[in-house]
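Would you mind writing out the residues of a protein together with its fold in token form for me to study?
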Amino acid sequence: MVMSMDRMNELMQEAERQSLDNDGFGEGPVRQTLQPLAVQLNKASTPVTIYETRTGDARQILRHYWPAARRKKHNDPQFPEWLGKPLFSLTPPANLPERPRFMCYLNPKHPDYEAKFAQFHFAACSAAHLPSLAEVESHAEHKHRDEWKKIKKAQDDARQEEGLRLQREMVNTLIAQREQPPRADEQQPLAVNGERPQKRTRRKRK
């Protein structure tokens, strides 16, 4: 399919307008000399870093997604002072309090990655900005749904096997204790005065 020159010019103008007038990266009138369409499309697909204005969490998006991202507002009722304020910014917020950061379980830098998760050979995750362990669980359940199900099943199987192993050890210990012969001092109970009680013999009736 051959694109007409009119259609080409329309797409070029649209790309120029989206790049300069609508995305917040450039201000001022549209350039008089249009760049080639391929250059504009490549520019629109360039990744940029945006920041969550309340937490400072950084993420990367393609440049042409920024117009939609900058229109998003805070709507979490747990933080009423942020309601209606912009959700994302192109610059990191200043004077944020220090908060703990937790890594995704599938991040190769996670302390337990080699011991517990590398064996599954799942795709690595770079998330390292999660604010709590609960968020780590939620991240795993939503971002790595299939992988997390397999990990949980393996962990459940391991716990079940460990429980069965402890039960077997307990049973074997009880059996071994019952099979041991009683010690000499345990064969007959001692009386209060230290003497062994005499066995009573029954007299035969005539």
Observations:
- Residues 100-179 form one domain.
- The chain has a mean pLDDT of 76.
- The beta strands are 47-52, 58-62, 88-89.
